[in-house]
Amino acid sequence: MASENQNGDRRHQEVGHKSLLQSDELYQYILETTVYPREPEAMKELREITAKHPWNLMTTSADEGQFLNMLLKLINAKNTMEIGVYTGYSLLATALALPDDGKILAMDINRENYEIGLPVIQKAGVAHKIDFREGPALPVLDQMIEDEKNHGSFDFVFVDADKDNYINYHKRLLELVRVGGVIAYDNTLWSGSVVAPPDAPMRKYIRYYRDFVLELNNALAADPRIEICQLPVGDGVTLCRRIK
Ligand code: SAM
Ligand code: CA
């Protein structure tokens, strides 16, 4: 849904990534000019399969997938982690970016949705890079921290799961990612609700997680162990580069 404001701009009223841009048309322009013409066939196929799934609101958008793929190549990532897989669009964007001996430790409490995307990932020839673990991510991180050889071993982590745990993930991930490595937190603008007045109408889940997102953003901004950068891509991605 779009409406005109006083300046005559068409602005999205719905929740979702597009509300962060000036207009629907601008977002469509980005997709059609830069993203879709270069989207790998496997990612297109997975995007179309995911679009038919009832929870498709959760998927990473195609422009964000393109961004992740580029970022991973720019930093020469090899050992990576993803928390929150769903049908695997961001996972596939990652798997396609890594070298053949690259690794992704991928965690989700729901294996069923991962299995929707798995045949596409297999067909793309990148499934061997993925170590999927079904279950909550926090205990896996705690277990990894116990073994010192895992400390500083990850080049990149994409966090896209339960927003009320991001702070808990952050504490652990700072030990697991190497100095110079990157943690990317997804949905840090939370449908634009981070600037909504407390009494503004909001969907229940937006309202529920909003305080956690606000708390995370403040904590990241005050954390001297990282450099940060907020990108208004998708629903907002915060890149954190570990510096100590
Ligand atoms: N990155 C995915 C993509 O590109 O399609 C989207 C992930 S979706 C927004 C969030 C996922 O986090 C869901 O699939 C959900 O099952 C998972 N999740 C929720 N709580 C979790 C937890 N404690 N540990 C691991 N995964 C969790
Ligand atoms: Ca997300």
From TrEMBL:
The lineage of its organism: Eukaryota, Viridiplantae, Streptophyta, Embryophyta, Tracheophyta. One of its GO terms (molecular function) is metal ion binding. One of its GO terms (biological process) is methylation. It comes from the Eukaryota. InterPro entries: Cation-dep_OMT, SAM-dependent_MTases_sf, SAM_O-MeTrfase. Transmembrane segments: none annotated. Keywords: Metal-binding, Methyltransferase, S-adenosyl-L-methionine, Transferase. Gene3D superfamilies: Vaccinia Virus protein VP39 (3.40.50.150). Belongs to the class I-like SAM-binding methyltransferase superfamily. Cation-dependent O-methyltransferase family. This is Caffeoyl-CoA O-methyltransferase. It comes from Musa balbisiana (Banana).
